[in-house]
Amino acid sequence: MTEPLFWQQLPVKLTYSRRKTIALHVKDSQIEIRAPLQTPDHFVQDFLATKTPWLEKTLAQQQLQVRQRVDYCQASHIPFMGFNVQLIRAQARRASWQLDEAGLKCYLPGESDNAVLPLLNDFYQHQARFWLVKKTHALAHRLNLQMRLSDIGFRNTKTQWGHCTNQGRIQYNWQIMMAPESVIDYLVAHEVCHLQHLNHSSAFWQLVHSAHPTYNQDRRWLRDNGHRLKLI
Ligand SMILES: [Zn+2]
């Protein structure tokens, strides 16, 4: 008997529908095959077998990404603008945080590990409102684009770090504050340059390059490490 492949120990969800082709989806270690109605079993098996290398790679990548995330409930340090800030928990009647040279003090009413999450969320949001607003205005001013900037907003989006509308409204995901400062500056440059070019043309990238010369390596860092920055 051959050793079962590790994905063979994971349940595979099989759904049939009125579709023309067979497809494989993997999300959060859940494997799903979507097949046309009346697809024979052996066909599904063969299809899965041909996808083994891709499946192993994808599952390993997804599992690695989950493991690489900071466990904020247990963490002794948190990432903040390239610094590894010590997290100091203390009991208090009301939840609050305070940042000083010793680290980030989190005052928590309860003992639960999860209680620190809303506080950290508040901390990063607060920092984002200060730093990203300041950096965005400074760069928009330097590039002579301040007249096109109408508003700066914040939200927690799963897929996007930043967004710029044709009305000149820039939105950031405040969790970018966990990234090194040059990566934060790249994101700001990216969104501010959209005030000039609302596309990803070569003229846009040239402007990003002149605003933030290390944009290429910072962009790559964000692509390779962005998944680790998620707080919730
Ligand atoms: Zn863009």
Question: How do the strands and helices of this protein lay out in sequence?
Answer:
Elements: E1 12-17, E2 23-27, E3 30-36, H1 41-50, H2 52-68, E4 77-80, E5 83-91, E6 96-100, E7 103-108, H3 116-142, E8 151-155, E9 162-164, E10 169-173, H4 181-193, H5 202-211, H6 215-225
Parallel strand pairs: 1-3, 5-7, 8-10
Antiparallel strand pairs: 2-3, 4-5, 6-7, 9-10
Helix pairs in contact: 3-4, 4-5, 4-6
Briefly summarize what is shown.
The chain is an alpha/beta fold.
The assigned CATH architecture of the largest domain is: 2-Layer Sandwich
CATH top level of the largest domain is: Alpha Beta
Largest sheet: 4 strands, mixed
Strand order, sheet with most strands: 4-5-7-6
Counting structural domains, the number is 2
Number of helical segments with 4 or more residues: 6
User: How do the SSEs run, as a string of H and E?
Assistant: EEEHHEEEEHEEEHHH
Distance between the termini: 43 Å
> Which homologous superfamily in CATH is the superfamily of the largest domain?
Metalloproteases ("zincins"), catalytic domain
The shape is globular
Number of strands: 10
CATH topology of the largest domain: Zincin-like
Ligands, ions, cofactors = zinc ion
Strand content: 15-25%
Mean of all residue-level pLDDT scores: 88
Specify the helix fraction band.
25-40%
Instruction: Using the CA coordinates, give the radius of gyration.
Output: 23 Å
